[in-house]
Amino acid sequence: MASIEMHSFTRDMQPLMEEAANNFAEEKVNTAFGQVKVSIYGDRKDPKKVPMITFHDLGLDSESNFQNFFQFVSIAEFADKFCIYNINAPGQEMDAQPLPENYQYPTMDGVAKTIENVADHFKINQFIGFGVGVGANVLLRYAAQNQNRVIALILVNCCSGKSGWVEWGYEKWNASYLRKVGMTKFTVDYLMWHHFGRNYDRCSPDIVRQYRVFFQHLPNPNSLAAFIESYIQRSPLPISRDGTTGVQLKVPVLQLVGAGSAHVEDTVEVNTKLDPAHADWIKISDSCGLVLDDRPDAVTESMMLFLQGLGYFPTLNVMKMTKKMQETQNGGGFSAITSQSNEC
């Protein structure tokens, strides 16, 4: 497989990357569906650090989905508060062995069960969840059944309903191609749409090119096909705003979506099922669907303000911090949050 570097960073970021590497570990954790790989950033033995569990999207693993973003926000204030546990869905990490031919891939409820297995393994009583796309659905699905273990959720491009006919057909074709042929232009185009939306011009051409090449060289098409099939067969999330047709979620939720994302309407639909007193919805302007890579400054600002509202970083000047980070990256600073509402 070709070696693809998803991003490059300025020299100013190098000490932060080295600091993160010094507190990095990987473990294979036994679950009800076999072993899953967990990447850990931070000192898990420090009782002062709050656990944060992440879950990735289709076509990515925990490293390719979150590593660049956490390197961007790997500042002292953040690293001092949290220990990050990046969970991979079964068989989805880039160095995974092919799944056995007789392996029965878990449903989305089963994938959510792996979160409980990981939390139990590391003796995590409560955590903040951070998920993207399919990972957001998985974490919200877990929280609906385990509210006492979830402090808060940060969800990007989240969908709560079952797949529609068009989505079902499109993804079913992709799963079939992946099993019979491997990675094809059709499947790569689907993954690009899923992550970027239709208007690639909203996103950096370099990021678009890097991800297209990355998807072309995914190593385990059969495993990805199984993950896609599990997602298209998902059941609707059992939540409702008033608790009459599902669980009333009391967990604080921050939803993020890029203005150019293919999933804007899905996130709005999710918001209609959340209690306005505990939910925030933010659309980030001038961004494609891949907001963690395209607009890490805006995502960082939104996350920090949300976490500050929960009692973390009480003395941190969030606006000043994100402006400084933006200047380090691009030579100028600005706030990119254009829409925030909990009234949808």
Q: Structural class per helix/strand content?
A: alpha/beta
Level-1 CATH class name of the domain at 20-161 and 236-329: Alpha Beta
Spatial sequence of strands, sheet with the most strands: 1-2-4-3-5-6-7-8-9
CATH topology type of the domain at 20-161 and 236-329: Rossmann fold
Oligomer: single chain
CATH 2nd-level architecture of the domain at 20-161 and 236-329:
3-Layer(aba) Sandwich
The rough form would be described as: globular
Proportion of residues in β-strands: 15-25%
Percent of residues in helices comes to 40-55%
Q: Would you tell me the overall average pLDDT?
A: 84
Q: Termini separation (Å)?
A: 44 Å
CATH superfamily of the domain at 20-161 and 236-329: Alpha/Beta hydrolase fold, catalytic domain
User: Which stretches of 5+ consecutive residues score pLDDT under 50?
Assistant: 1-17, 331-344
Pfam family, one: Ndr
Protein name: Protein NDRG3
Family: Belongs to the NDRG family.
